[in-house]
Amino acid sequence: MGIPNDPDNQRAIVRAALESLSRFNAPGQIVDLPFEWPESGWEKEVERTYVEEAHIVVDQRTRGEFDAEGRHFAKTLAEEAAGYCKDCAV
Question: Does the predicted model carry a pTM greater than 0.70?
Answer without folding.
Answer: no
